[in-house]
Amino acid sequence: MSTILNVTDSLSESAGGLSHATLNLAVSTSKHLPDHRLIVLSHQDSTEVDSDLIECPANLAIEKVECFRNSYFPFSLGLYKKILDFQPDLIHLRGLWRQSSFACLKWKKEHPDLKLIVQPAGMLEPWARKRNGLSKRFYYSLFESRLFQACDAIHATSIAEADNLIAMGLPSEKMFIIEEGIYIPSLSSSNRIDRSPDKAATKQLLFLSRIHPKKGIELLLNAIALLRPQNWTCKIVGMGSLSYERILKKRVQRLGLENIVFFEGPLYGQKKAAMFRDSDAFVLPTYSENFGIAIAEAMSWGLPVITTTGTPWSALSDPSMGWYIKPNVNDLSYALFCLFSKDNHELNAMGERCRSFVESNFSWNTVGERMARKYVSLIGY
Known about the structure:
Layout: E1 3-10, H1 17-31, E2 37-43, E3 60-65, H2 79-86, E4 90-94, H3 99-110, E5 115-119, H4 126-130, H5 133-150, E6 153-156, H6 159-167, E7 175-177, E8 203-208, H7 217-227, E9 232-237, H8 242-255, E10 261-265, H9 269-277, E11 281-284, H10 293-300, E12 305-308, E13 322-325, H11 329-340, H12 344-361, H13 364-379
Parallel strand pairs: 1-2, 1-4, 2-3, 4-5, 5-6, 6-7, 8-9, 8-11, 9-10, 11-12, 12-13
């Protein structure tokens, strides 16, 4: 029996889609590797997503290590010892810029015959690199670049991310692409989205992601201010810094959007599902995403989607499913205008096509099977 260790900084909701994807990938992959042991290792944090885990395969363990949690560089004295205690045959590092990079690099240097996969998880996308650009360039050249030199494989979640990584100079021969997955909700009669003709006149546009400047929320507010729709509201759901959220709320007041735009805070579990169920469309006007798991989630709930060329979701350039636009106010305003002009029948048809698309291409069962094959090919047994 081999041991496969997934290492990430945090399984908190505040880590965004990466925490959910890390856990879901481990669950789905372990089902396809019943004769192997899989472990997810992270620093302890608050509001961790594994607390909602309903089913945990017998060959999967979730381990936490105590740490000094802070917004700059969470640190644990026991992280590396934990890694050694598990005696992994393969490590899959998910995410950069944290202590786990140092620990995994040290492990690989001391165990050159064992296998290391590094997943940047969007943290080397051009937009992300520009933020704190000087310090990131220094840190990358000093530390993270050595991690990519030492590793056996690099995991990208889209062709666009792989192209960006190769353009940075990372070796194409180490690169492989496996997308993130999505659990497809059962839309029974009790939770099916109600877009019948007699539904209330006001429709709901949903933004659900991290509250962060890269997500394009300011673009969204400016575009809505230009249109001022009479029969739509916009719900903004997610976790982020309180200071940035205060900036956004002040902008809502300044633009006079208090009766259109509402901040709902972070939602989890059934409350999050209810928000998807009660919405009529989804928007993520982001500047940069390596995958964009929230887009896949929205599509799985049968919502037409507006997103940008900063994501790999070019499938949404098909007007029968949504809009795939450049991240600027003009293009976003036009897409919103077209959306706000759709009737319930058109929204239903678009949403059904979106749901069928993700069901065919991004189920966690399919993604887990592909990752299981990759692990086995690297380990060799």
